Amino acid sequence: MRHFRVSGAEFSNRQPHPSETYFGRLRTNASNDDYAAVHLRYHEIRGIWVREQNKRGIMELLKPDVSRFSIGEASFVIDISPGHNRRPSDDEAFTIVKTPDFLNRYIGLSKTLRPKSILELGIFQGGGFVFFDSLFSPETIAAVELDRTPVAPLMDWIKKHPGRFAHFGSNQTDSQLLKRIVSDELGGALDLVIDDASHLYEATRLSFETLFPLLAPSGHYVIEDWAWAHAPLYQGDKAPFAGRPALTNLIFDLVLLHGSTPFIAAINIFKTMVVVQKATAPAVPNDFWSLIRNRGKEAPRI
Ligand SMILES: C[S@@+](CC[C@H](N)C(=O)[O-])C[C@H]1O[C@@H](n2cnc3c(N)ncnc32)[C@H](O)[C@@H]1O
Q: Ligand 1: does its nearest atom lie under 6 Å from the Cβ of 126?
């Protein structure tokens, strides 16, 4: 049993119940501010889990206009400027390419999800990686990035925290690599996938095809920015991705798969991302797409 104090309130964690593995329970009548402080304190005391009992969740939602924020030891600068000419991560802060809308969706998920292993596709400057690591505190987290240049502050983070892995110069379409990461680095388990890589239909579908069978029962598979084809910037012959199939086609595929098979428990479609929750049973075969039943008709394609 460990005890510590924050803002005059005293906290302790009890021995975790086997079904909770990590989650101790606060014994206190502390205020909401104390709970927020405890959340930050938790990140300083790795190994001790505290769980808030207030209804506001373990991390406050970010205000819509926030541009910098911290979780525990990690600081973030939001940079969503178009193209790749964004602020590089440095010793002060990781650059993260997510608006508060995206970040708040994950903060909301963190109230109920306790992923032990996470795989992120698309690292850029490492902000997403360190955000997921700090928010969910998994046992292991790995990520792949097409760009060959390692991000130095991320590599420093990885050196300091065991069970963290980054693969630069790696394509999300490399099924063999993704399978190897799950077996060798994530201990054969996969609780949460976040695909924020190419946003192209074929590559995103291929990653899903590789990883969905490996996802744990009730695991979650997030695909960000599925709605790019519907944004004003992406209309017309000269727009980015003009001529490429919309990522929306994968949403169609997922709906058809959900209707045809017992493999998906739920699909939550938000403007920022789609969150697919795997069902608890049965095992998903590698050729699961072939099980879609369409009454012989063509599905819509855009
Ligand atoms: C939107 S950024 C990722 C941002 C990061 N997840 C974050 O939250 O800060 C997309 C990244 O995916 C990478 N990418 C693009 N296509 C890829 C592919 N086929 N495989 C792996 N990474 C890819 C890009 O180089 C880029 O760095």
A: no
Decide if 106 is inside a domain.
yes
Residue whose CA is closest, atom 7 of ligand 1? Answer: 128
User: How many other C-beta atoms are found inside a 10 Å radius of the C-beta of residue 138?
Assistant: 20
Number of domain units in the chain = 2
- The answer to whether the CB of 171 is under 6 A from ligand 1 is yes
Q: How many helices and strands, by DSSP H and E, does the chain display?
A: 7, 12
Q: What is the CA radius of gyration of the chain?
A: 20
Q: Please indicate, yes or no, if residue 300 is contained in any of the structural domains.
A: no
Q: What's the mean pLDDT when you consider all of the chain?
A: 86
Read off the pLDDT of residues 258-282 as tens digits, 9 standing for 90 and up: 999 999 999 999 999 999 999 997 8
pLDDT in tens, 130-158: 999 999 999 999 999 999 999 999 999 99
Q: Measuring CA to CA, which residue among 206, 212, 190, 228 is closest to residue 264? A: 212
Q: How many CB atoms lie within 10 A of CB 244?
A: 15
Pairing mode, strands 140-145 and 117-121: parallel
Distance of CA 6 to the CA centre of its chain: 29
Q: Which domain holds residue 17?
A: 2-44
> What's the angle, vertex CA 300, arms to CA 298 and CA 302, rounded to 5?
135
Residue 132 lies in a domain: yes
